[in-house]
Amino acid sequence: MDSVTVTEALSQKMETVLFPPKRQLLPNLSDVYELELAFYENLILNDEALQRNGAYFASVDGKPTRHFLMCMGKPLMLPEHSSSRLRSFFEKNIFRTGYGTHGLFPYRGKFHPQMIKGIMNAMGLKPGETVLDPMMGSGTVPVEAALMGIHSVGVDASPFCRFMAQTKVDALTMSLARAKRAIGNYSEVFEYFKNRIGKPVTGSKVQPRKTTGEYMAVMEAAAEYVAVKDRKQLNKKDRETSDTYNFLLLAYLDSAGYSERSKRQMPLEQFKAILERYLFVAEKIQTVLKGVESELGEAQILEGDARSLSLENDSVDGIVFSPPYSFAVDYLANDSFHLNFLRVNIDELRNKMIGLRGRKLSDKFDLYKIDMIEVLAECGRVLRKGRICTIVVGTNSNQLSKVLGMSPEDVPGLHRLLVEMADGHGLRLAKEMSRPIIGISNTMRREYILMFKKQ
User: Fold this and answer.
1) What is the 3-state secondary structure (H, E, C) of 227-245?
2) pTM assigned to the model
3) Which of 185, 187, 320, 395 has its CA 20 to 30 A from that of 386?
4) The sheet that has 427-436: what strands, in order across it?
């Protein structure tokens, strides 16, 4: 290939060289990993698939992508007291996070939904196939898979995560009529949950509550969807009651947790603001999905142990998950407001959580390695041959340096450890990408996207 002059080189745009003119990228793609995932989407997806499920394209042959339509407009209905920095973040990241029902309930350490969509496309997952997230947390993978027409199985040890993820999935299609009416008498709804579940204490630290060991104690009979293995068993009226109840309950728990951490707004007004935001998010995505609801993937949301999955061998077409950032984030401490409200015994749950077992940091790390070997063995067992398991993991150099007795600069990182572990279970590293972490850079500076192919 002949070299070009500087003038000729600078006159070209990289995107016009990498992508055909009829496939227009979204604005504000600023990281290398985003461009790389867009490159794979362009190679793998045809025009119809890219228009429907592309993560990094605004239009195909002049037709807006579904992702573009989901994200356009006001990103979130933020409270009036929100800082300019927060508003700027959501405006800048309008295509990355907060769209769909991902905007229900803020959850620390959750995936960027757009990145997960791009990863699933790069993995070759197609509508009708099944993806697994064995540590689903806030449910980003099941929600994103549903929007893409991909079936999913989401598993988490935390009852609250299961409840939250199921409510987000349900909000994609649930009737919002009764939830809208609840805005008109929000004070009565707030009093109902306050009397049934407990009153948030403004500006306090975590208040221990008497637990029953059974979080269904706060659920009404018609809302006991978590006890129903097949949601289709519910008739239309009971399903609407169940969906509405849990939509309102999640909003209440969100407001209660915030009220216990902050004195900025009274609990009642906080509940009203959050409920209005929830309705805004749900209405916005349902407007985009109107008429194509039948194309959504089915999500199976389970409470369970990633080290012992209740799935058949070779039963899923892809796996996407992120191991817990246990050395940086104590998820149970962050969720204690909500777990206490749901009457969950946090001490018992801690013993089931990967990365939280053990007293000293060195004990936690040793148990973490043992647990992750079991998780990877399960991933290797349930994944079909030739398919991809993607692990998204951040570096924990500061914490690991204390365990390993070396400087943070010399720590190999969890991603290298996971590559070694995975290889022993038929999962061979096929691709590695990385992205900078902005929000918690004092603890984790970089996140790695590791794609393993089952041999």
Assistant:
1) HCCCHHHCCHHHHHHHHHH
2) 0.88
3) 395
4) 299-303, 151-156, 130-133, 316-321, 383-394, 446-454, 427-436
